[in-house]
Amino acid sequence: MTNLLLGAGVVGTVLFVVTFLVDGLTRPGYDPVRQPVSALALGPRGWVQVTSFVLCGGLITASALGLGQATGSLWLAIAVAVFGLALVASGVFPMDPMRGYPPGTPDETPSELSWRHHVHDGAGIVVFAALPTAAIVAVFALDGEVWRWYSGFTAVAATLLFVGFGQAWEQDSPRTGLIQRVAIIVGWSWLGVLCAQLAYPS
């Protein structure tokens, strides 16, 4: 059962990344370098990213139980569960149209934002805070120097990238989406590889 739960974490992390990469590159009118992953939840194909948020978030939440069983760390399980649930919330409460997407939307940030957008923003902060927190906990919970160093690197890199993404978003940088994608790939990869390693140790 533990391996099945850990496998859910592998599937959830990989599927999420593959979905936004492929959908972002093939979505008409969408600029993956500028626009955030969350914008993919808007427009006629928005259901694809909404489903990804909810499904992958659910799988990652399930993997938290497996991580707790495999490592004996309650705090690691809690951090990953919070991360997964925040992903689900990001899909249930999508961001508002803005900054040119969907096509036809004014190329600016609205002066007034919906309550759903505010909930989405809050969930996003939790997502990008919970993952580095999980990595920090893993530094102390995991055996082996390699995993401790990898977890520490992930915690620092993911935090710096999240801060960079936040600054880019506030400045409407043309590379906002790119910075966010790097942050996601760094953090999600660590979690997926960890789940895989614990499920199928070499």
Structure, explained:
The protein is mainly alpha-helical. The chain has one domain (2-102, 113-199). It has helices at 2-26, 46-71, 74-92, 115-141, 145-170, 176-199. Helix 4 (115-141) runs antiparallel to helix 5 and helix 5 (145-170) runs antiparallel to helix 6. The protein starts with a helix and ends with a helix. The mean pLDDT is 97. InterPro entries: DUF998. Pfam families: DUF998. Keywords: Membrane, Transmembrane, Transmembrane helix.
Notable traits:
6 helices, 202 residues, DUF998, 0% strand, mainly alpha, single chain
Main pleated-sheet profile: none
Taking all Cα atoms into account, the compactness measure Rg is 17 Å
Order of helices and strands: HHHHHH
| Shape descriptor | elongated
Derived from helix and strand composition plus strand pairing, the structural class reads mainly alpha
Q: How many helical stretches?
A: 6
Low-pLDDT stretches: none
Question: Into how many domains do the coordinates divide?
Answer: 1
What is the residue-mean pLDDT, rounded to a whole number? 97
- Tell me the fraction of residues in β-strands, as a range: under 5%
The number of E-state strands comes to: 0
Secondary structure: helix percent: over 70%
Task: Give the N-to-C terminal Cα separation.
Answer: 19 Å
Transmembrane segments: 6-26, 47-68, 74-93, 122-141, 147-166, 178-200
Keywords: Membrane, Transmembrane, Transmembrane helix
Pfam families: DUF998
Protein name: DUF998 domain-containing protein
